[in-house]
Amino acid sequence: MTDENAHTPASDGSAPSTSGARSPSLVTNNGTIFTGDMTIQAPLALPSPADVSGPHRMHNLPRPASHRFVGRDRELAILEQALHARNERTATQVVTQTMSGLGGVGKTTLALHYAHSHRPDYTTVWWINAETPETITESLAQLTTRANPGTDTGSAAGEALAQWALAWLDTHPGWLLVFDNATHPDHLAPYLARLTNGHKIITSRLTHDWDTLADRPLHLDVLPRPAAISLLCQLARRDDPTEHPAAGELADELGHLPLALEQAGTHIRRTRGTYSGYLKRFRTQTARMLNTPGNGDPHRTTIARTWRITLDTIADRDPLAVHFLQIMAWLAPHDIPRDLLDGLADDPGAEADALALLNDFSMISLTESTATTHRLVQAVARTPDPHDPHRTEPAIDKAQSCATTLLRGALPHKPLSNVAGWARWRALLPHIDAYFTHAHPDTDTADTSFILYTTSRFLLGQGQFSQASRYAHRSAATSERIHGDDHPDTLAYRTNLANLYQIARDLDQAIPIYERTLTDTVRIYGEVHPETVFARMELARAYQAVGDLNRAIPMLEQALTDTIRIHGEDPESTLFARVELARAYQAVGDLNRAVPMLEQALTDTIRIHREDPLQILINCRYLAGAYHTAGNLQRAIAMYEQALNDSTRVLGEDHLQTMISRISLAGVYQAAGDLKRSIPMLEQALNDCIRIYGDNHPDIFTYRKNLADAYRAAGDLSRAIPIYEQALTDSMRFHGDNHPHIFTYRKNLADAYQAAGNLGSAIPMYEQALTDTIRILGEDHLKTLAYRINLADAYKTAGDLSRAIPIYEQALTDSVRFHGEGHPIFWTSFFALAGAYDAAGDLDRAIPMYELILGDFTQKVGESHKITRMVWNRLQQARAKQR
To answer: pTM for the whole thing?
Structure first.
């Protein structure tokens, strides 16, 4: 007796066989054999394969041709080109075409469609289940049975029947074999080697090692979106055009995967459901829907079952690959950075091998630097199923925790200022967003809270206020839940949320958070503590931002006093407090105190922070701004020029501080009347901002407004007005109708209309700006007072002093009541009213007002300041008229 694998076929292609639970395979009997249960079968008496013609046009295709074949015209053309047109091949020549792709992507459907469409081109079309060597043998044995009708082959060995089939195919050209769902090329190689003519299609989830069997492997992706919607509508039998948007949303959620579309469409048709209803159930009952066949047949293939088989195979080869897939389930499906997964294995090579294995089975696709997977693969991988060993709750929880750790470790430092890290941020953002979409807030940890906090800072710097706000809220809420209200992280994350509102000009929400944080900090740490000082300064800066300097300045003075009490006169500890107080003095017009403090602050910054060019540049720009406000344009220009040169050299052209320095310098050039230098710089700043941030960043609206201001100052209203109009339109689209920026841009456009003499357009815009500001910000807001004056100015320009003067008088009364007589808005109102009295010929009231203004400004900013000179000229003109 020879080895059981060394079969020697009989002349008819059959071999003796044995059967029984403990039987060997008998090829040659050279003596008596005692084995227990054994039956010796005689060789199968089949005619020679060459002598059997077989039934006419024989086939065993498993399903009829489907009339719902959509979206595969390109792939079908490739298949037809490979099997027929290329090099004018015919069905008598040997051609092998492989098709690979994710389970459920439609490989079998495409092969079946081709086979039905081209049955007349072949003498025989035979479908072979290629999942295992045993199923291949069984399918070929069935071919032998079909080719020999009337012959009892039931007791013959399957291998013998398969060998007869191969011999028959080799002597009868013109056939097509479809090896469906092949799991490895080695399983097919022995059979393909015997077949020297005819056409072969191989479908497989495996993407590699087919090159030796086919010239040009074909990889199938999901359906194009229009085809996916069309297929879904056909299957659901709901093709009303009004329902197409809902069908499109469901198709997108299912990732345009044919099997998922079939499962959904059939379910919708069977249950008389709707697209939106299925989508809602899919999102809320994911596990159930992934495992529910569309037609209710418990044995029907589903998405979950389809991929379970693949994952079983992958897990046997490398469990790390399954873990990688579980981690990627928490990220966005596309462009996952491969280096994000670094460090998960002790052997770095193991990570590349695990990704390659997933790619081999079409569970992901790889580039040199990224990985991509299907959104439904992700949905399955993160949905628990107690019956699936790859989807246990502990495994899914572990994967989520790993994803958190990997994301936190990948975050670049200094999200607001580190321009070099912005590309990495942009690569990570889709995955951070996907993680927090999938992860329930109740599962957030201290690590996820930190990710939310840091990402909100980056989004804030990029102008994505809505998303930044959601992240900041969630980070603060998570810290409160985990640590309580009094934890330092909670206070920091709450302050971050207030910062975000403040930068977004939503101070009505920012200030209450700052106030609460200060109250909590005083309660936790006491009145004199670094944390309390910081919280007090943040609140004071918010008060300053709304123009409430009567509250801001005393708080900043207290903060500086407390800082000195804690740290002494050490400039390093008191530097920030001094700078903020100086800027508040500048805002209130007290330049005699502001300028010396900012000069000392810059000197201290250069000495203390010589290794921190960013802080030096910021304080240099603050001092230049104070010189600008004081009317010392020569010194302001020199400092802004130095700041721009240093920022460009140290931080680069694209850094935020470089753009701010360029804008600031352009503004002081404009103030000096040097529009030939100002306008090109503003144009460059706008172009740089669009290039770096894109066309939908709120800073772009501001830069457009600044450029329009310069064109208006140059008298080029034909350029200025369209830019103002675009800034207003874009800002309304971005912020909505009620954002404070809208009021500013509407006022700017009204100013331009007024300058162009178009008071018919200007006055209604001023009226609307004032009405909206009162409604949103209140009667006492600085913008309300400023817009009231703007409206009065327009009436005055139109010669309607009967309307203008009462509005000026109300503005002055409100400025005194809300902000006091020393506030800049008071002097603005006072000067505007004096000018209205002057224009009306009421010099007895106008001249004393001019004299009072002149005395105050001479004392505060000196006789040479441009405002002082302007008031003096008005006073002289009024006195001349009085004579």
So the answer is: 0.71
